[in-house]
UniProtKB/TrEMBL annotation, chain A:
<comment type="similarity">
    <text>Belongs to the binding-protein-dependent transport system permease family. LivHM subfamily.</text>
</comment>
<dbReference type="GO" id="GO:0022857">
    <property type="term" value="F:transmembrane transporter activity"/>
</dbReference>
<keyword id="KW-0812">Transmembrane</keyword>
<feature type="transmembrane region" description="Helical">
    <location>
        <begin position="67"/>
        <end position="86"/>
    </location>
</feature>
<dbReference type="Pfam" id="PF02653">
    <property type="entry name" value="BPD_transp_2"/>
</dbReference>
<feature type="transmembrane region" description="Helical">
    <location>
        <begin position="41"/>
        <end position="61"/>
    </location>
</feature>
<feature type="transmembrane region" description="Helical">
    <location>
        <begin position="188"/>
        <end position="210"/>
    </location>
</feature>
Automatic annotation (TrEMBL), chain B:
<keyword id="KW-0029">Amino-acid transport</keyword>
<comment type="similarity">
    <text>Belongs to the leucine-binding protein family.</text>
</comment>
<feature type="domain" description="Leucine-binding protein">
    <location>
        <begin position="24"/>
        <end position="356"/>
    </location>
</feature>
<dbReference type="Pfam" id="PF13458">
    <property type="entry name" value="Peripla_BP_6"/>
</dbReference>
<dbReference type="InterPro" id="IPR051010">
    <property type="entry name" value="BCAA_transport"/>
</dbReference>
<feature type="signal peptide">
    <location>
        <begin position="1"/>
        <end position="22"/>
    </location>
</feature>
<dbReference type="InterPro" id="IPR028082">
    <property type="entry name" value="Peripla_BP_I"/>
</dbReference>
UniProtKB/TrEMBL annotation, chain C:
<feature type="transmembrane region" description="Helical">
    <location>
        <begin position="65"/>
        <end position="83"/>
    </location>
</feature>
<feature type="transmembrane region" description="Helical">
    <location>
        <begin position="39"/>
        <end position="58"/>
    </location>
</feature>
<protein>
    <submittedName>
        <fullName>Amino acid/amide ABC transporter membrane protein 2, HAAT family</fullName>
    </submittedName>
</protein>
<dbReference type="GO" id="GO:0015658">
    <property type="term" value="F:branched-chain amino acid transmembrane transporter activity"/>
</dbReference>
<keyword id="KW-0472">Membrane</keyword>
<dbReference type="InterPro" id="IPR043428">
    <property type="entry name" value="LivM-like"/>
</dbReference>
<feature type="transmembrane region" description="Helical">
    <location>
        <begin position="262"/>
        <end position="287"/>
    </location>
</feature>
Length: 305, 381, 328
């Protein structure tokens, strides 16, 4: 029973990571851009959701606002800064997006103040539900799993079945070619970037609802999303999905099971601290193992660019 | 640096120097004013400034230099070096975080500066590492956890689940709780520092047969845990130290915090005259309710002013003796220093309640009276 | 390659740094000497990273790992020396030390070993993967340092007294500055020699065209790994000096912000230029100091300024001074 609940937790955590990693991997894949400021867009989504929900009293309007605000922020940043970076090497991209983090974080603090913001669930989504088998589980975590699955399906449909998807795939395969075919690359890139930003903002709003809305909230998640993208393979939505679930499960189950396993060898107190220390590095060990076996990631095409 | 330097007084202070009978005292405040932890530093600064303002002319004798440590220990060390070498301050104060205090305080007092702690008070500085020039005006780090343990015992809670982040302050926290808790600890869990998803821990709480949960999760960690716990439908009562229920955090937690018991040495509804004046003027000045950190900084400034009125800083021994008397109107009502220059004071159990539109704390009873700390015996001075 | 513009600018930057410190010392402004020392140490870290990043094209976002390891080795040895206890008794007894001359090789050795392991794994990848993998390894060490209680965990480790150097009073700011600047100069000469050597040329060739290098019979992996280890060792030395500057080490030295900052020094000054990191570090510290006085939100201003430099002055400070870009 406890194990089943922990598995659900791992699944939910994985879905959340997928929302972050999907945008990151899309932008890598199509534009060859490394975007450290992706976590800032996640934060922007959460703050927009909290501000709108507080002003209107409606969580759903807040959620919609998170999508709109993050997409708008993404498009704005793409047009003002990011598009000048595509032709540059990764080094300039890292520095510029590192600078964007500073601007976003302190700008948000200037707008919203230094204290965490309030964001909570509407009554219709709060509380726990009884699952088959008698397991009580928070409804909203199930909703996040649902949203994650829906976004995964939607992205698959978008990329496999629509004109935009064809262009995105063409862009991943050969950037010069699609320009020659008369596709407006500048617009395509703005759309892709805004789409990735909207997904990150959406994730921020969902997570902010059950965690906390504060400056700097995006940074730990960003690093985890990197790990997911590396494990899954750059540019692969499928890889991001599998990688996210793998990381989510490893982290959750590692934290839940390791201290127990270690307590068979040591006394409870040191097993707890050592177990917690080991659990916190477990996903990085996972990443190292994947890289030794498959340097291009599980579903990577092999082009790190 | 000029714009950030708040010269309170200046020429006017020198003209008035005769009034209080002493030279102006130069105070260096190192606190966190940027980044995610800035809320605590802002309240520390504002509480301190308010005390100086409320003191009128006496407050103008304090020349305050404020610098932002960015919550980075190496930056704090460098600011301390600068304040000591270039600004030549007499007194240092303001650090919020224990790891920053450990980096700054031992070196500062070794260079003959007074350090008055507005918050952080790690065990190392209370025991063998105590120092005649170091005063903690807040508490000793273990105190609020000890009070929570005492409260859990008094409330007849037989089995408890305890949880803290896996770092020194977290380990001290659980040790402090267990020091005064007489029941059974069914599970002891260390979480990751900065962790924001507690689904796994909540599942363990649900599966355990504990009657209550004690947790220490400062800042965003606590906000995340309480919201998720409220959603989970696990109804076991929560107990914690005041840090996760402080006025700076409560608005972000929302109703999920309602009814939670927490322990503190101060509360805004503590009935004494200085406290009433403090809460009223703080609200008037800054338009928000004061937090625990603001109250501690307010007391620190008043302690400093009381010593300045009694002794000259040039006579370090007399000044130290004047500080140790703690002869100031504390917002906590009762306040005195123990032999290791950490507070001996009362601790209260508070409950999170809704007053109109705002969430705040209400005292529901005493937790510990005239409580010192566990390290005083190891302090040889 | 006589006295060209680059060399003049390089020497001018060093002279300016030294002049600032000496001037401040004469005026009795100890804190400015400390700031100049910090610039020299960060410059040294940047010089180390530049070897891998500028000359080798290895964009490591995890050099804080080596910076932190150097710092922790220093802190651990010094704290054991103060307590009089051995650091380890198995497989052989290692005693603590408070002699810089003994600590530096240990710090560099430990950082070099870590760089060997991290590099051997990370160099199996390339491009964006490499950036993220090095970042993740540094994060792993960071979380380990926070949760490992033996040496202070998140609280860090203080050692109160700066380690000693024969014949000098390391506690005097100007003397410690002299030590750090001398090491910086040594590292600069070392870098200049290495990059002009057969090894250095092969490294730069591997950056520009991997296939052709292979065709010439050079194994890029071994060359890059060597550069990565050398780079890690220099950064480890910088970490050791930084620990001594503050007499304190903490996991913050291992954080990804630190990695980012070291990278900023290199890029701010000019990638692949000998003295670029020194100019970058000095400029960064100056900005931090000046902007910090302007507003509580100074980090946003710093961000905007960095953005402007990346977008409009891609050659960095030295690029502006010498009026040309080294490589696109």
């Amino acid at each position: 029973m406890l194990l089943a609940e922990q598995a659900l937790n791992g699944l939910q955590y994985g879905m959340m990571l997928f929302l972050m990693a999907a945008g990151l991997t899309l932008v890598f894949g199509v534009m060859g851009l490394i975007n450290l400021a992706h976590g800032s867009l996640y934060m922007a989504g959460a703050f927009a959701c909290a501000a709108v929900a507080a002003a209107t009293g409606s969580f759903w309007l807040g959620l919609a606002a998170s999508l709109v605000a993050a997409a708008a922020a993404g498009a704005l940043v793409e047009i003002a800064v990011i598009r000048r970076l595509y032709a540059r090497d990764h080094l300039d991209q890292v520095l510029a997006t590192f600078a964007l983090i500073l601007v976003f974080s302190e700008g948000t603090r200037w707008l919203f103040g230094s204290f965490p913001l309030y964001l909570t669930l509407p009554p219709s989504l709060s509380g726990a539900v009884m699952l088959p088998g008698g397991l009580h589980y928070p409804l909203f975590r199930l909703v996040i799993i649902g949203f994650g699955a829906a976004v995964a399906l939607g992205l698959w449909w978008l990329i496999a079945r629509t004109r935009l998807g064809i262009r995105i795939r063409a862009g991943e395969a050969d950037r010069e070619m699609i320009g020659a075919l008369g596709v407006d690359i500048a617009r395509l890139y703005t759309i892709v970037f805004a789409l990735g930003a909207a997904l990150a903002g959406f994730a921020g709003a969902l997570v902010g609802t059950i965690q906390s809305v504060q400056v700097g909230m995006g940074e730990p998640v960003l690093i985890l999303a990197f790990v997911v993208v590396v494990i899954g393979g750059i540019g692969s939505i499928k890889g991001a999905f599998v990688g996210a679930l793998l990381v989510g499960m490893t982290d959750t189950l590692g934290k839940a099971l390791l201290p127990g396993l270690l307590s068979r060898m040591w006394d409870a107190a040191s097993a707890n601290t050592v177990g917690a220390s080991l659990a916190s590095v477990l996903i990085y060990v996972l990443m190292a193992v994947v890289l030794i076996l498959r340097p291009q990631g599980l579903f990577g095409a092999g082009a790190g660019r | 640096m000029k714009l950030k330097r708040l010269l309170i007084g200046g020429a006017a202070a020198i003209a008035l120097a005769g009034a209080a009978g002493a030279e102006p005292v130069k105070v260096g405040m190192i606190t966190t004013l940027s980044g995610g932890g800035a809320g605590l530093g802002v309240d520390t600064r504002d509480g301190f400034l308010l005390a100086l303002k409320n003191a009128g002319e006496a407050g103008q004798q304090v020349e305050l230099v404020i610098e932002d440590d960015q919550q980075k220990p190496d930056v704090a060390v460098q600011i301390a070096d600068k304040m000591i070498q270039s600004d030549q301050v007499d007194v240092l104060t303001g650090i919020v975080w224990s790891n920053l205090a450990m980096a700054v305080v031992p070196a500062a007092v070794a260079q003959d500066k007074f350090y008055l702690s507005t918050n952080a008070a790690p065990s190392q500085l209370a025991g063998a590492g105590c120092h005649p020039k170091y005063f903690s005006v807040s508490y000793q780090n273990d105190n609020l956890h000890e009070a929570a343990g005492a409260h859990a015992t008094d409330a007849g809670i037989g089995k408890v689940f305890i949880m803290a982040p896996n770092y020194p302050a977290g380990q001290d926290s659980l040790a402090g709780f267990k020091r005064y808790y007489k029941g059974e600890v069914v599970s002891e869990v260390y979480t990751q520092v900065g962790q924001t998803d507690y689904a796994g821990e909540i599942a363990q709480i649900r599966a355990s047969d504990a009657d209550a949960v004690f947790f220490f999760l400062p800042g965003g960690m606590g906000i995340a845990f309480m919201k998720q716990y409220a959603e989970s439908g696990v109804g076991k009562p929560l107990i914690g130290p005041a840090f996760s229920f402080s006025q700076d955090i409560l608005p972000a937690v929302g109703d999920a915090a309602l009814g939670v018991k927490n322990t503190a040495q101060w509360s805004k509804d503590l009935e004494n005259q200085p406290n009433a004046a403090f809460v009223e003027t703080f609200q008037a000045e800054y338009g928000r309710l004061p937090s625990l950190y603001a109250a501690q900084a307010y007391d620190t400034a008043n302690l400093l002013l009381s010593a300045m009125a009694k002794a000259d800083l040039d006579d370090a021994d007399a000044f130290r003796a004047a500080l140790a008397q703690a002869d100031f109107p504390s917002v906590r009502g009762k306040f005195r220093f123990g032999p290791n220059q950490h507070p001996i004071q009362d601790y209260y159990v508070r409950e999170v309640v809704r007053e109109g539109d705002v969430l705040t704390n209400k005292i529901i009873g005493p937790a510990m009276a005239d409580h010192g700390d566990a390290y005083a015996e190891q302090c040889k001075m | 390659m006589t006295l060209n513009r680059d060399t003049v600018v390089n020497l001018a930057i060093l002279a300016l740094l030294v002049a600032t410190a000496i001037g401040a010392h004469v005026l009795g402004n100890g804190f400015t000497v400390t700031l100049a020392t910090k610039a020299a140490i960060f410059g040294l870290a940047g010089v180390g990273l530049n070897l891998a990043l500028g000359y080798g094209g290895l964009i490591s976002f995890g050099h804080a790992a080596f910076f932190g390891i150097g710092g922790y080795v220093t802190g651990i040895l010094a704290s054991h020396a103060a307590a009089g206890t051995p650091v380890a008794t198995l497989p052989f007894t290692v005693m603590g030390s408070n002699e810089m001359l003994g600590i530096w090789p240990m710090a560099m050795l430990a950082a070099g070993l870590a760089a060997l392991v991290i590099g051997a794994l990370s160099l199996r990848t390339w491009g964006v993967y490499f950036i993220m993998v090095t970042l993740a390894f540094a994060q792993m060490l960071y979380y380990f340092a926070i949760s490992w209680p033996r040496y202070g965990g998140e609280d860090g480790l203080s050692f109160y007294v700066r380690n000693s150097f024969p014949g000098l009073n390391t506690f005097a700011p100007i003397q410690y500055f002299a030590i750090c600047t001398t090491l910086l100069a040594v590292a600069l000469v070392f870098t200049a020699v290495v990059t002009q050597s057969r090894f250095g040329l092969a490294l730069q060739a591997a950056r520009q065209n991997s296939q052709r290098t292979v065709a010439l019979g050079i194994r890029p992996y071994a060359i890059r790994l060597t550069a990565f280890v050398l780079s890690g060792m220099i950064v480890g030395l910088a970490g050791s000096l930084y620990a001594d500057l503050n007499r304190f080490v903490s996991p913050a030295m291992l954080s990804w912000h630190m990695s980012g900052e070291i990278m900023v020094f290199v890029i701010l000054g000019g990638v692949g230029r000998l003295c670029g990191p020194v100019a970058g570090a000095a400029l960064f510290i100056l900005l931090e100091h000046v902007l910090g006085g302007v507003s509580d939100y100074w980090q946003a201003l710093l961000g905007l300024l960095l953005l402007a430099i990346v977008l409009f002055a891609p050659g960095g400070l030295i690029g502006i001074l010498t009026q040309r870009r080294r490589h696109a």
